[in-house]
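Case 446 in the screening queue. Each case pairs one protein sequence with one candidate compound; here the compound is zinc ion. For every case the pipeline is the same: read the inputs, emit a complex structure as tokens, and attach any notable structural observations.

Predict complex for case 446.
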Amino acid sequence: MSDKKNVIIIIVDAFRTKNTSLYGYDKVTDKSLSKIAAESLVFKDFFSSSNATAPSLTSIFTGKYPNNHGIVHQFPYTTEEEFAKLEENKFWLPSFLKSKGYETIAIDWIGLFFKEGFDYYEEKDDRKSNMEKLMEINVVKKFLLGLPNWAYKLGKSVTKARTSAKFSPAEDTMDLGIRKIKESKKPFFLFMHFWDTHFPFPTTPFDGSGKNDINEFLNKIEDKNQKEYFKKRVTDIGLNSVDEMIDKYDKSIEMVDEQIGKLVDFLKKEKLWDDTVLIVLGDHGTNLIDHKVYFSSSSLFDDTIHVPYVMHLPGYQGMKVEGFAQNIDIAPTLLDYLRFSNDSQMDGESLLKLVRGEKIRERVLFFDGLAGDIKGVRTKDRKLIVAKDNNCNLCKSNHHQWFEEYDLTKDSEEKENIFNGNSELMKFLDNRQDINKASEMAYLQY
Ligand SMILES: [Zn+2]
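Case 446 output:
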């Protein structure tokens, strides 16, 4: 087994293409990643299968779309049925690699079923107990779902704790990762999850200038629920300028990127670089102030699902890879590259095919993990979003209409809904029943 390559997957939370120079941002937030890109495969059209963490990570570990692996919704909105369906999955990447002799290490903090298959799993005890409590107590669940004002003060400490104390800053996370690599037998599978880039970026040192345009900004938000929700979030970040909030997001990316650079330097110094697969990606993207969704990954606009994907594969030269790729492809790609056979059913395809210039799919699919029931399909030129239940669990407003279609050739920012009652893309989304239901609801709405 020792001739097998090591595997490192790095998740950068809420990481969108728009804020990296590698994908066209005019600010350089990704110095290390750009450097690695020269000797890596950079996928230009990589779309997460979900706008939320839990469904996305589950897609990575199963090779399946959320509706097929079970976990469609982010905790604590995941249903009993979704958990039950999860148990039907036969393939789970960490367990599979472990069965092939890999030492499996995760620094992920979430816990729950994500611990499955890992020899070592880093999570903070208080997070674990909080999470378990949150999952068990109905009143708390209701509180999280509704965030009504009266409960806000009461729950603020929980929210604060969730956003500040539950994971280590990027530097400590990477130091732990490197220490684990040093201690591990080879081959190893290291899964690392950086949360620093998730609003309100609590681990990122950033002093605001004292600029204050937040009230002006809040006044412009028309949707009452959105306004309330964002108001609450503003207290978490401690900044009063939207521009500075965006700057802080960029700074968080820079901070994580620097740590990725440190890892690569370490791997090279230890002569592990040529024996190690390194994958860096966003589990989902995020809206900043786009689409009237504020600093949240709610909605299925490209901002929340088009994510960076950089893969260093020993033996492969650096290149930009075109064509649709998704997180469901990661497991099949690793199996293909490491030459493991497996007969489990997966939705994904090996990305080595794309590298060879073969087409693997004409369209990508994605599921909203933060709203009742919304899914979308996107081709190069078009995108269709169908909402059976468009209530956002986080802010209680609606970020999508029952049907939305965008002509991406003319409207890459997805501003003008051109849905006119029917769409060629409809057939890719769901069974008839769902579509009829959605039509019915659309009809009721207008
Ligand atoms: Zn929302």
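Case 446 observations:
- Residues 296, 298, 392, 394-395, 397, 399 surround zinc ion (CB under 6 Å).
- The domain at 6-124+167-361 is CATH 3.40.720.10 (Alkaline Phosphatase, subunit A).
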